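User: Run a structure prediction on this.
Assistant: Running it now.
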Amino acid sequence: MIRGYSDHAANERTFLAWVRTGIAVIAFGFVIEKFNLFLDAIAREAAGDATHQFDVHNLSGPFGRYVGLALIFGGLGLLLFATARFLRTGRLLDAPETHSASNARAELILLALLMSVVAGYSVYLLVG
């Protein structure tokens, strides 16, 4: 039997939740990138109608181009962060001495950053 099995299992479940979140962020980044490619194709098709071309061009502006890439790389960073945290927590669980529980400051910062990116892009799509 593994000593502290329930603690190790909880660590693994937390790691898998972070991995799912990272994959979802990466997938959302790909969706945004594909959406921008779609908007660029529509803008090229609407080249004859100046009013529609302007509307579509505003949606696929520079902000929209870089948000997808930022989310893709942010999701990769999230996966690296989750892996490092999983390994560190596993080592701390196996150590014979008692360790204090760390605060969740890093998780809250990542959550705030992700929420601000999603909210900013949503406002961008609604206003644009």
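The longest helix spans residues 5-45.
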